[in-house]
Predict the 3D structure of the following.
Amino acid sequence: MFLKDPAGAPFKSLRHLAEVLQGQAQQLLFAMNAGMFREDYSPLGLLVVDGQQLHRINLATGFGNFYMKPNGIFVVSPSGARIVESSQYAALQDQDFIILATQSGPMLVSAGTIHPGLNPEGTSRNIRNGIGVASANEVVFAISEEPINFYEFALLFRDRLKCSDALYLDGNVSSLYARGLGRDDEHTSLGPIIGVTTPLPR
């Protein structure tokens, strides 16, 4: 999970993240925007990076996708990956050391059930990205190639990707860096970023 570069400024760009990591002898294999953010690029909800909580959990009620309850948190701990409803996160803190976490919303799929507030006939269509968990050791990221509604996106995770839990990350700003695909989206500035790295070959 990434938020700020070594100078303390938000990365904003998947390409900038890749360049900084290369200077640290790391290669970025994959990256995606990792949740909703404010105008200063700070996260709207919980963010844990390398075991350090950089922003507190947000359990407020409000307007917009983030606040469609239940919303959720993607968590990685020594016991693996999971997505939990935000209201259940506090119970995890006494059980596991959280390595990384990001909060967003709404939950697309929870325990195999599609979010009840998602309309199959929904007319709000956008390029969207999200994350699903098939097991503690298998995480699936997805980004749409064409505008879709929330329900269609939830169906993808539940029925085709076989994820019992899935979380919406964002729309409109949805971006993907995939070295193996030769893809480096530079649509707009981003807040939190999630990625996979490997040491550069010596």
Q: What stands out?
A: The radius of gyration is 16 Å. The mean pLDDT is 95. The chain is about 10% helix and 35% strand.
